[in-house]
Amino acid sequence: MNPNHLLILTAVCAILALAIHTICRKKNWTIQRRLGRNKGIPSPTSEGGLVFLLGFLVCLAYSSSFIGRDILLSPAEMKSRHLGLALALIWTWAAGRFVDSKNLSHLYTTAVLTIGAAIATAFGFRIETLRVGETVFEIGWMSIPGTLLWFVVISEFFRLLDGLDGLLMVGVGAAVSAQIWILEPEEGYALLLCYSLLPVLIGLFPWRIYPARIELKGIGAYLPGFIFGAITLVGRQ
Q1: d(Cα 64, Cα 76) in Å, to the nearest integer?
Q2: What distance, in Å, lies between the first and last C-alpha atoms of the chain?
Q3: How far apart are CA 63 and CA 184, in angstroms?
Q4: DSSP secondary structure string, 116-177?
Q5: DSSP sequence for 62-120
Q6: Which end of the chain is more exposed for a tag (fewer CB within 10 A), N or C?
Q7: What is the pLDDT of residue 114?
Q8: Can the peptide bond before residue 211 be classed as cis, meaning omega within 30 degrees of 0?
Q9: What is the predicted pLDDT for the residue at 127?
């Protein structure tokens, strides 16, 4: 994808954020946060999580037409991973929102993330080798539990940044930018996922500046880290 495509997708994500936020405000599904007037006001619902999910799915669908060469994957394998990542995110969002709405314990959220990770793993997102210095080890059956653990840990790590408005977007954006910098041109699929994630981060960022008018909150705060975890699994290991 070229810069024009990224610009168009960023605009689409920004408009999507505006539309969903407007609907939530009119339906009283969320409460507007205002600078200096937040004390005693309940936190908004996770409309930001919905914006993030839909925005990324749009970018993912659009990017499918740019699937090309990759040093590790065939076009069929890349399309399979596209589908698997979409299904994993939809499951994580839907089941996670149920957990959030029932105020269930964090253990249930972890279970939701683990099942989402299992879906992604089934479609090829997997840690298959471990590098120690110049030596590469095949980890065999440990690849599945290792991958599940990686998805949960990386999702939890980036979720911690959601405590400060805008920091999660900046943190994941910086990590994705670093990936783009270090990835080789022939690692086309990893780069394609990075370019699919950036427009969502940029389009949603203005709404996340303090005081954040759109909250990720709950399961929505796990999605950026989950996607970044998937990106790290499709480059060279």
Answers
A1: 11
A2: 24
A3: 19
A4: HHHHHHHTT----EEEETTEEEE-GGGHHHHHHHHHHHHHHHHHGGGGSTTHHHHHHHHHHH
A5: HHGGG----SS--HHHHHHHHHHHHHHHHHHHHHHHHHHHTT--HHHHHHHHHHHHHHH
A6: C
A7: 97
A8: yes
A9: 87
Q: Per-10-residue mean pLDDT for the chain, 237 residues long?
A: 90 93 78 50 65 95 87 87 97 93 91 97 88 73 92 94 80 93 87 95 86 80 95 78
What is residue 41's predicted lDDT score, i.e. its pLDDT? 45
Task: Report residue 193 as tokens.
Answer: 């996922």
Query: What pLDDT, on a 0 to 100 scale, did the predictor assign at position 183?
Result: 86
- How does 102-138 read in b/e, with b if 16+ C-beta sit within 10 Å? eeeeeeebeebbeebbebbbebebbbeeeeeeeeeee
Nearest to 148 by CA among 95, 100, 173, 112: 112
What does the buried/exposed string (b/e) look like for 58-70 if buried means 16 or more CB atoms within 10 Å of the residue's CB? bbbebbeeebeeb
